[in-house]
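Repro case for the chain-ordering regression, as requested:
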Amino acid sequence: MTFHPKIDYRELHRSARRLPHDDGQPFAYSAENRARLEEIAKRYPPEGRRSAILPALFLVQRQHGYISLSAIPHVAEAIGCTAAEVEDVVSFYTMFYTRPVGKFVVQVCRTLPCALRGAERVTEELIAALGTDPNGTDSTGTFTLVEVECLGACDRAPLVMINDSWHECLEPDQARALADDLRARGEAAVSGCHHQQADRAAHQ
Amino acid sequence: MDPILTKYVREPHSYTLDFYLRHEGYEGLRKALSMAPNDVIDLVKASGLKGRGGAGFPAGMKWQFVVKDTPKPKYIVCNADESEPGTFKDHLLMERNPHLLLEGCLIACHAIGAKVAYIYIRGEFLHVQHVLERQLEEAYAKGYVGKNVMGLGFDCDIFIHRGAGAYEAGEETALLESLEGKRAQPRLKPPFPAVAGLYGAPTAVNNVETLSNVPLVLLRGAEWYAALGPEKNGGPKLYCVSGHVAKPGVYEASMKTTLRELIFDFAGGVRDGRALKAVIPGGSSVPILLPNQLDVEASFDGVSKAGSLLGSAGIIVLDETTCMVWLAENLLRFYRHESCGKCTPCREGTQWLLNILEKIERGDGEMKDLALLENVAGLIAGKTLCAFGDAAATPALTTLKNFRGEYEAHIREGRCTVPAPWRRRSAAPAHSH
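-- result from build under test --
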């Protein structure tokens, strides 16, 4: 990428290199995850084994919480490709965390359809309720707040994704209650995608 | 038109194999397997089924282009990376009617001579993926997928592949790159996927809704299917209505339905009694239509004639409180974030468009910035490997064309002239991309 004196490159473009965090810990798959990876690799022809890189990285993240520097050569060895090829992928996709994250990663959809229904206000309220700015983690390591682009649930806006689950139709004035509920009940506080079946029926 | 694709989505067990089999499930596949592959392709061509992913390319033609005379394997890849802002129809189909998609994949494989289909689903749809995976297992267990499908001597595997967060993966060659374990960046075309697609083998990439229409064509015939919509725009269509409407949601209708009917009759009109300002009819990448342009058929051809595109049928409704400079800025932040970085005009240009729009929106704009916006947008559109460049240039160009006065007011008054209660109350953080 080019560098220009008038552009603030505080957040580098996704095509630019973001080295994963080096936590000094060696990474190795658990026996279970290593076996799981071999199962997944069978979905692809032998010459297409590299296709298993994305699933392999999801396994790292599930085991370790994020993708650390030492996981890169380990995944490369398991796949049979170079470390550069793995890092190329890690740095491109937004769902891979290259830094430690909080117990709950709270992702607010900020793209137009959600924004039209109050997502900017939701973010403001969440900043206050969670005690962290977007792209930051609170001092207790409980919440990481991220503004993300369209999650594909524009009819149930504003949408917030907490770890892997959806929380739908979050009004700005409900943000503080959601934060408290998450602290108290964990992921049980998340609505899930139930509007699809119940409330949604009224729409159609 | 009564719903067909979404007829049973509200039934509690509509996603199960048992339910599907009670409603003629896999009968389209049975019919297809009794036909020669070329006859299946001809039937789908005759139905006029257009691709539902955004481009509206005829599905039968796509299959016909797949090179058949080759020692290489062939692949069907289902694009379930639904990411176009304003689009959420494939989610509903996969979650509530997954076997329809699986059946469509199998018919497509038979048509082009493939033994494997991959469903590339976006990573944020994990709850949908779980439904698909369970139903796929069920279909394997009951002999509808795998070896000797339905005892009819047809072998076909279906695998689900999870994406990891990249809008660009919705572009078909970028999707193939991603499926091969690389960055989701588009390929130079030609060769098209029909010649050299996944692992260099002939491949057809079809959208979820497209494949979900295929069993209907087989079951009821091309004539029945074509007659559901206006000429060359046959079949049922799923519309996603979002934004400032009373009842956002997925609505299934004939493409004879007008945009106005979809917004006012289906989705209950503009919420809170406000006035309609504009509509983005096909996902965030297409030009804006004004309230007096909505009496057109919501078909691929109808919306085209009105000066926009049906795209992914994501209808985003904007009421009078929407600032058009803010809107362009919001969308440019999206495109800037999602630009894959492969082509310089798009990677650099989206950043510049965003910078200028932020400057105008916060009240620091100058009149000469408007010409600069048009200039930069013009340097992106048509100058990139994929359609992303055109899409990224559109929000700035279409808002300037239709709402130039609003831009000028921002610059004259040195502030946003259309503030809304639903927007942020604190000052926008500088360079918050």
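Ordering looks correct now. Helices of chain A lie at 31-41, 53-64, 71-79, 83-90, 112-116, 119-130, 175-185.
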